[in-house]
Amino acid sequence: MSENRPNEITGPETRARVKELVEDIDFTMLTTQDAAGNLVSRPMSTRQMDEAGNIWFFTLDDTKKVEEAEADHHVGLSYLDAKGHRYVSVAGRARTVDDRAKMEELYSPSLDIWFEDGLDTAGITLLKVTPVECEFWEPRHGTLAAAAGMLKALVTRDTPDDMMNHGRVTF
C-alpha cells in the first residue's frame, strides 16, 4: 500500500496561488475564540486579498466576531471548495479598519443584503486579516484526474498516489 503524500509547493508562486484560491473560493469560515475559550466560526465573504497578503471583509463593528477578534487578534480562516477539492487554511491576526476609501474600493451592491444603507450603514467597518501562515491543498492534475484516482483507489483498495498539491507560505 502506498502512502498519500501531497506534492509540496513552497516557492514564490505559492503566495500567488493562495491569493487566487482565496479570491476564487470567496466564502470562508472565520474562527475566533470567545470569552469562555471556545472556538467559534461563522461564514464571511472575502472581498480581496491585497498584494501585501491582507484579506479584507465587511462587517459591523458591534458584532461578536469583532469583539472576539479585538480581545484576541489570532483568527483562523478555512476555505473549502468541495466540488473542486480545493482547500485553504489561514492562520492570521485580525483588526478592524475604518477607511472610507478602502471601503469604496471593495464595496459592491451584492453586499446590500447585509448592509441595507450600503456604505452609509451605521457601524459598517472592514475586518482585515493579516496572514501569518497559509496552507492549501488542491488536485495536482485537475478535478477529473483526482476523481479517477479516488475511483481507482476504491477498486484496488490502495491509497491514491500523487493526487494533491500542498502549498505552504509564511508571511
Instruction: List the uncertain runs.
Output: none
Nearest-integer average pLDDT: 89
Q: Name the helix and strand elements from N-terminus to C-terminus, one letter apiece.
A: EHEEEEHEEHEHE
Please state roughly what percent of the residues sit in beta strands, choosing from under 5%, 5-15%, 15-25%, 25-35%, 35-45% or over 45%. 35-45%
Structural class: alpha+beta
Number of strands: 9
Rg is 18 Å
Shape: globular
Largest sheet: 9 strands, mixed
The number of helical runs is 4
- In which range does the helix fraction lie? 10-25%
What does this structure look like?
- This protein is of the alpha+beta class.
- It has helices at 13-25, 64-71, 100-106, 143-156, and strands spanning 7-9, 27-33, 39-45, 48-49, 55-60, 74-81, 86-97, 124-139, 164-170.
- Strands 1, 2, 3, 4, 5, 6, 7, 8 and 9 form a 9-stranded mixed β-sheet that branches.
- Strand 4 (48-49) and strand 5 form a beta hairpin.
- The protein starts with 6 loop residues before the first strand and ends with a strand.
- The mean pLDDT is 89.
Considering the chains and any ligands shown, give keywords for the structure.
single chain; 171 residues; alpha+beta; nine-stranded mixed sheet; 25% helix; globular
Short description:
The protein is of the alpha+beta class and about 170 residues long. Helices cover about 25% and strands about 40% of the residues. The chain starts with 6 loop residues before the first strand and ends with a strand.
